[in-house]
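ok so for the tutorial part 2 we go from a plain amino acid sequence to predicted structure tokens. step 1 is just haveing the sequence, like this:
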Amino acid sequence: MGIPCHFALFDLQPSFRLDLEQLAARYRELARSVHPDRFADAGEREQRLALERSASLNEAYQTLKSAPLRARYLLTLRGPELPLEATVQDPEFLLQQMHWREELEELQDSADLAGVAIFKRRLKLAQDELNDSFAACWDDPRRREEAERLMRRMQFLDKLSYEVRQLEERLDD
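step 2 — the prediction. this is what the tokens look like for a chain of 173 residues:
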């Protein structure tokens, strides 16, 4: 038997759209049942299995709760393994990335916390738009290339979002 599907661990059908609160609640419930501490008095084999189940559950949860990771995972379920670092043949998006980076640098240089908040909201809207676009095409084999391009864009925006949160914390101190 192969590795269980991340979605199956949570009794979910493979889908991009997930109720993240429901996912978190189910994760906590499952995590309690497989937590290695519950198997402290069990045999060595049971303890090892509990550790493995706990690690699998954690990996599945981290993958499913993140839109870019969930997108990559869904594409991998539906087709060949995706390279981790793919060259982006997406000139329009590369230009957009440059503009976002320049804007973020200016916000950092001017220590503009209000500007960072506005930038963060615009970034969230762009992420929501990408999520909607990906949800509409990920399971259509004819739109695989488009879905992969959207997933790579999601990964970039996720990284940028992380950098914005870091900048926000630095400026807030």
